[in-house]
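User: ok so my PI wants both of these folded by tonight, can you help

Assistant: No problem, let's get them done. Here's the first:
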Amino acid sequence: MKRVKYILSFILVGLIVMNCSKPEPAVKEKDFKYVTEQFADLKIQRYQIPGFEDLSLKQKELLYYLSMAAQSGREIIFDQNYKHNLYIKRTLEAILKDYKGDRTDPEFAKFEEYTKRVWFSNGIHHHYSNRKFMPEFSYPYFERLVRGTNDELLPLQSGEDASALLKKLKPILFDPNVDAIKTNQAPDIDLIKTSAINYYESVTQQEVENYYKAIVDPQDSTPVSYGLNSKMIKTNGKIQEKVWKVGGMYSKAIEQVVYWLEKAVTVAENDQQKKTLELLIEYYKTGDLKKFDEYCIEWVKDTESMIDITNGFIETYGDPLGYRASYESVVSFKDLEATKRIKAISDNAQWFEDNSPLMPQHKKKNVTGISGKVITVVSESGDASPSTPIGINLPNADWIRKDYGSKSVNLGNIVHAYNMASATSGVLEEFAYSDEQIKRGKEYGALSDDLHTDMHEVIGHASGQLNPGIGQPNETLKNYSSTLEEARADLVALYYIFDKKLVDIEVMPSLEAGKAQYDSYIRNALLTQLARIKPGDNIEEAHMRNRMLIAQWAYEKGMKDNVIEKKIKDGKTYFVVNDYEKLKTLFGDLLREIQRIKSEGDFQSGKNLVETYGVKVDPVIHKEVLERYAKLKIAPYAGFINPVLKPVMDGNTIKDIIVEYPDDFTNQMIYYSNKFSFLPTYN
């Protein structure tokens, strides 16, 4: 899924919640607790599922089965992110459940916080920066915790005892130089050898590139997504792919995913949805990537169903070479009223393509199959949880998007929860330069963010085309493809959000909303997003690089005309947009160039853009931002506790499904581990 995530920053399903405070039933908006706790750089939130009660029993049942399928694969992402993650996770959970020592010790509180960070990031590497985060408790204290835990609960492997476990985990957890970064994006090094991601074993970057160069036909107009659902290993000098499927790698979890998908088929809303789910099941059973393409095509065609799901190995951000995808799932239903806005945009997709600043040869002559909607999320799992996207556009295969179209969604209730939690954060007041900016941000900020997401997903990712004979972006642009694709989609959104067309189609009241987005985007890119990285670090994450690239490039290119001005007031730094029309023109110029880079597969130009404008951080401004942000006492990242879907049974028959809202992150994660742990510790 090409996605908007963190611009701006899964579901407990089942019958019971272990050792949990009683879940809170649906409550009125004004009484709902959106934020439950804050630790490290993280904030834990909740979201509601409005409209669930109005669905039919059959629809509720379908959502329940799809949610169970989503959660059944949730541990896959831990293993994908790092080969030792499940070993670590299960050790931490064993201690949390069984340690009989003093739990009032301040060191134990540090242990609890570290465990929650591991849950939140689906492993020991930060979910956003990709850097390994270190325990704040000491190794001797960790040894005491392990020794004070029943060996039978520890994930001991064959021949291991607690001493062997400690010996293995000591460097992994406490040496900052061991597997320090999950996904390395640095230039001119072996990205495979220097990344901790568990997608490759005993192979070099050159071997991976040579492998795919030998099997990929650049003239194939309908190529499969090579490597999407497999781990690449080399044994006895031979390279092979361990496919994630029933009977293959991750089989025990995938079998459970399939079990629940098969139950979902029995209550499908219509034949098209049934066909789509059956193809997804067949793909999981066979691992056949051609079958995955068939599924994607039929999924794009299913625009009438109220219920929808994304489930599978989808996003390739974690792979430094952009082949392999992380497991994730988002289960949802359509918000009919809010969808009117995004539908108005998708209905005008051809106009946006025709009037874009792209070179004529890079425009689609006939934009087909573009659909958009606002969804109400019911369940999220894997790479979409606890930290969630706010917008999605699928499928990722360029040829499917060109020939069949794509589906774009705005996660309406998730966005609402973010807005409710951040309404009184003080970030706008601290980093906006003037009262005029603050007023405009408060009046139009939420709408302009929604429109940016809509345009990014519905129009941005769906726009443009590759030149004939040019390979897929992960092959041509390699480790820079994700950053450049997100920049391209952002630029489409930015270019049009200051266009009267959005006023004419009645999704935006005036260009003041566009000004609010320009203010916000530049402010976020050049200032506030820096609160998310440590002093001295470069920017690693693709979305952050994309925003910095756009803003720095526009700042530099517009300097002669003072389009964006750096101002100092009361000793604080601000970036102020002086000329919105010229900034729009600059956005159009950069969009044209990045589309050219993608269309032509121009690796060197793409690399130069990202490395020149998207990676480096001004240390003086960075220090200032961190100090200003610290005074606000808010966490820069947020994720969610998920609602509970609870069947009400009449014998063996489901007579209703209700929603409850737990408020304890730790209890939810322990429950997940007890309910949905199907994988061996090492796979």
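One down. Here's the second:
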Amino acid sequence: MGSKENVELEDELDLDADLDLDDELEGTELDTDDLDEPSETGALQSSSKRVRMIFSVMASPNRIDILRILNSKGPLTYSELKSLAGFKSKKESGKFAYHLRKLLRQSLVALNKSERRYTITNLGKLVLSLARQIEERSIIESGKMYVRTSHDSIEEFNSHKIIQSLVREGSLPLELAQKITEEVENRIYKYQTAYLTGSLIRELVNSVLLEHGYEEYRHKLARVGLPAFEVQETISNAENLDSGIESLLFNTGQTVFAEYLLTNTLPKDIADSHLSGDLHITRPGLWSLLPDSIFINIKELIEDGIDLKGKALSVSKLTSIKTLSNLSSALSMIISLIAKEASQEVIMDGLVSLLSKYSKNLSELEEKLVNSFIMSSTAFKFNKTPTIVSFTLPLGVEQKIVNVVLSAYKTYVGLTPRPRIGLVINYEKGKITDVSNIIAEIISLGGEIIFAKHSISQNGVTRLKSTGSSTLHLGSLSINLPRLAFESNKDETYFRARLALLMKPALTSMSLRKKNISELVRLGMNPILANNTQYMQRCSTSLVINLVGLRDAVFGILGFNDDKQGCEVLHKVVETSVDIALKKAKELGTDVLVTMTKSDGSGRFISLDEEKYGKNSILKITENETYAEGVVIDASTLADLTIKSPQIVQCNRMAKTLNGGLFTQVKIPNGSKITEIKKNIEKISGLTNSFKLIMRVPLCGNCGMKDQTLSDKCPSCKSSYII
């Protein structure tokens, strides 16, 4: 034990001894106070003494401060409490002990001797509340104005604090800050109110700034948050939230961060572009906090054990993975933990290699995998759509292990209404026919599976081959190509110029996003990622721009036909965007990818464009509820397609031109038989290098029943809520 700890322990021992002495002297201490008072008897006298002693304790600001500290931060050790109370020097040790002794003797503070920690008692909380009420009432009775702050305290109005805030938060020159404060103060006194809040004063300040044309300062000082009505509405509609209190907290929190992003973080032109519908930012509340996708090796995460050190003290440590049970626990923990560190998806390589050590008992391995998948399904999620954790399965390597994973995944999907675990089937070196049957069964159950001959996410975003062990993808930004086409007067050259003009500042803002997220990783806010990347030293980051509605823009608005000439224009647009991306990548010193994939902003684009250009104008382009996303192939046409079919040629050329990936969807009719799904998998695998089969599996939103036969009413619970 160090000398400092020895001193602190001695102080505590002295405190205990003093308490015993105080108990002996308590009656003596009160004798002089009782001389001039009428005699009282028994319990009444004892009660009166007790009240007087409590009031004497309240007379000291130091003791009130100690109660406040324990109420907000307790339980605390002796040294922690002493430091927070402001008694930092050795000379003040005796003074602190005296005040703490008073509180202990009146049972306002209690000591847990086994943990050596102090806590405020219920009586102490009552006294603290009474002290606060007296303080507030005294200010009111004095006729002075007081302010109820956002820090759960009440203070006398002080105009100097407004000046300090204007200078510190708004970066106003001191002279201007004084001028604005003087006007705000005059308005406050004019209203003759005795009751102020911090938010009300801020509103008055912002109003004055706006009246004088200081909008840039007002933005910095604006309060972000939700009106009380919206908070109440969120609570009232809680039945629509599927993650309970978590959803309430995350939804409100993300609303605040989204507002902060659009008013204080993004350049004004990009924020306006999002609001107007020129582009769309997915999940703006998480934009500056989390990457969208992470590519990472699970073998590297697990083999060395799990130890998040001081960043997640409630997470169990697994120092070594030596048994299959250890592996099962570690796997479920990793899935749950890593899902918190990306907003959309985590793609993990190395699972098959990791499991190969445990191939002696395949049935037990499958059982443990099922348990791991099931246990990880309880992890929280940021949005209604959870973060997907996908495992890459390379065909042609350790096929027995691949089969075990597929079988375990099939069981998991059957038990889970909405799976949050997915699979990436890499068929570069293996045969699709070896696994097509079981995968068809999984797809019929609603499993998340994508096929590719390279590393890819569930949304079709490609990982660059030259990257290191871990890669972050920062996307979430989609460009509304039909909007640009509408504004280009059917001039294809001008259309591409407008695209270039929008991409450049958008990528600059995404570079700022990269800086913000990297800083949070370095601070350990993403502990798994931080440890794996050595706090961003072993990690590459890619910025991703998504193009939405290309075919709608070229064929529907610019007026080209879906023929050879029209297809050439499609490719010219893609080539232009990729060229801009590569040039911007050199300027920014980071990889920039261009994709054509799904976007939750596609429906929003159509809605905003209908308002701006009229519904009839949009109906001439498309009858769908969203603009074109990636490439869509109807399963009914697959039988007639070959590698030389114009649709396939165009698809493969587009995929080759896009440096970030093309999302190729094969839409399968609901209720398709497993044999039909199997044929579709085998056929399309010979035509493209990546694809995903899309089939809606009906789900009862009331009881969670999942079945291809569900239509108007659930046969189990009779609910008509089918999703």
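The CA atoms of residues 205 and 211 lie 10 Å apart. The longest strand covers residues 471-480. Good luck tonight!
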